[in-house]
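Example pasted here:
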Amino acid sequence: MRKDEIRSPLNNLFNSIDNLLSDEKEEKLRSKLGKEIRKCIFTDDIIEKLNENDFSGLVEEEKKITVLFSMIFPVFVEKNDVTFRLYKHKIEVDLSDEMSDRYIYMFSDGRLTSGLFQCFKLYDDEYVYGIKKIINIIPSFREAIKQELVNLDQNEKVQKQKMGTYKDREVMAKRNFNELLKSLNKLK
């Protein structure tokens, strides 16, 4: 047996370890980028506006913020025939009506996935292209969030006038539930 043949399995092992470490570093960089993009969208002034709407401290508390996000999110922004949808944990990008032109960007791990379930890495040109589109739309996201908060505030005032106290809301919710359930039962 030649010396090169003996070293080959050992070289393969070292190459595999190097690849794993390289992948782990890339994942950490993507994750860090995702968190930075999220921070760039949810700036101090946005957080202040959230707090003004009596949602103090909710941006960092995942469970409590669900209510707020379900009321104002997703936030839609359209620019140059591209539709962006901002959620609390991700951004969806539709370049066209084709599934292959749809992308999902997850803040938590910085993952960019196509509509065809292809996951792009930080070293892919497609990743850089997609993230640049997202970065360019961040100012529009900020303005859209602020506008949604204004709309929420206006709608909340109207709803409070219409619905009265929490007790009244509970009674109305039960009545509406029963009415809808009755309609549903008619179909059975």
